[in-house]
Amino acid sequence: MNTYLMKKAMIETAVTRGIHEMEEDPERSVRRLIDLGRQFSKNRFQDQIFSVMQKSLTNENSAYYDMVHNLMKNSDHAAMKEFGVNFGYMGWTYGAARIRETEKKEGVCIPWCIMLRYDPAGRNGYSMEQLAHLFEQGQDLGIYVYFIRERGTGDSYELLELLERYKDCAFVWVKEDGRLTAAQIQVLRACRNTLVMLPADTENTEPLLTAALLREQKILFAMYASYDLDPDEERRRKIVENVLTSESSLFFLVAQDGAKANLRQLAYDSRLRQNYPFVEVDYYGDAEAIGKIVAEHQSLLEIDSDGTILRPACGGTGFDFGIPLMEELRNIMPAWKAAGR
Amino acid sequence: MADSNATKNALAASMKKLMIRRPFEKISVSDICNDCGINRKSFYYHFRDKYDLVNWIFYTGFVGEVDLFSYKTGWDLVEDICTYFYREKEFYRAALRIEGQNSFRDYLIEVATPVVEFFLKDVIPENESDSVFATFITDGFLTALIRWLSGGYHQEMDASQFVAKMKQIIVTLGDNLHQEAWRNTQSEKRRPEGSI
After folding, report:
1. B5, B48, B115 ranked by CB distance to A13: nearest
2. What does each C-alpha distance from A312 to A111, A113, A116 come to in angstroms?
3. Which of the four pLDDT bands, split at 50, 70 and 90, describes residue B195?
4. Which of A80, A337, B8, B144 is 20 to 30 Å apart from B181, CA to CA?
């Protein structure tokens, strides 16, 4: 009896039940989910987060209820379950436990997720084979979540076919050009472990058309905007309008390289005010915050499309795909220190 | 507004108390609210109806009880469930008697079936996806559970003893069936070809 599979089966049963209850009774179900989170909080920090969420939901006009409606209406429930279990259980619980164990043993920080920038046309970029190797070794260490920012125009579905193979992983595929072909959409329908991210900060209408197609096909997607400085009101208004039109439940704020924007505060304030039917997430800031909870450190690993390491800052060094991942992490990640030391 | 969990726990405590005293059908939402001094609006804020409350009591009680990461086998899980039911046996004896749509029995079957199917996956041949197997096992377990919680086995058994008995029956039956199948196979091999 494989106990890991047994536990996963039980989590999946609970999630299926939760989704079923959300279909029947969305408002009460989402409140109960938050209540459950608070009831089983492991520390004061978690208790505080759930307490704020509980308070938010006492407002009957909270836009978050509309968000839940949109999510249930626009997403394939099996995909919600698969992606959710992979991201939440495999990434934050099962994987995180393995990460913490290895960190203690090896004395080096292991990221809870790996962020990649990918250019399908890039000559100096990494290959599908190298990516596959990275995912396999990542899973061995407990890393089950991957963010892939694809720049340029990529029509091939080679990447999607690769992602589909890793059934325990969750992938966030950032499509910077906001375009998807019919063939890519068809492959995505089978790729339930992948959430597509489309740009909301563009005059181009293509991302919104793509969002409409994904909605129709009930494929998981989110919107994002990239920022250098804090956005002015007019720019923010146009971006929010695009996100509202898309009916996305998640909106990511992505800091540009060297950005001075205070996105963490922007995302936090928005989540508290709950004016909109979507949750704003600070792409880097919230990833760091999650890392602090699940892996006991904030260090992220991000690799550019030509293999240069962007995070942690390594002075332009390239990521060595040719050596075991654990060895490369020892070379580039900070030393691990026990929490509370 | 009071902490949601405190309100729900108060409603749950009243429901449990009332269910020990009288049949579920004779308990109204007003009875529950009057018992704990919480208004009906608050009740409906949290629960659809009294059936929903009973199912919630089980769900949160069960989630609080299980420690998924400590289990080595499925039997560990079964024993934890039974320990929980035994500790709250007066309530669950009454809950398992509830009839009608959205009954606790139906809820438990719905929750248990995917878990049973998971365990059967390694036992039932791959091309057999008949839900009769999972339903048969779930029905059997539920009937045994109700009888045990109601004292129907005419001997006091705590949860470990009850689970040990179930395991013994299943393993013994499985063993016997396996031996019989083996004997039949041997017998077929020894029979001369063409004989009846």
Report:
1. B115
2. 10, 13, 13
3. low
4. B144
